[in-house]
Amino acid sequence: MAKTVCGKIFTDRIDDAQRRLSGDTGSKDIAKYGPALGIVFEALSADELAQCENLAEEWNAADLPEDVLRK
Questions:
Q1: How far apart are CA 70 and CA 50, in angstroms?
Q2: Structural domain span for residue 29
């Protein structure tokens, strides 16, 4: 799914959003990952969304790239 791809390729944005949602704790609350992913996914530009959709199709048709598997 495009949203899953977003979680793999826009990790820095999701990390930032997750930290903001976690408050002043200085760490990331795991329960905030889903909402952070949703915020980032909804804010994607049309080009970024198309990139996620294209990669989702590629990854579903073949094996995942090794660098994605390592994350």
A1: 24
A2: 2-70
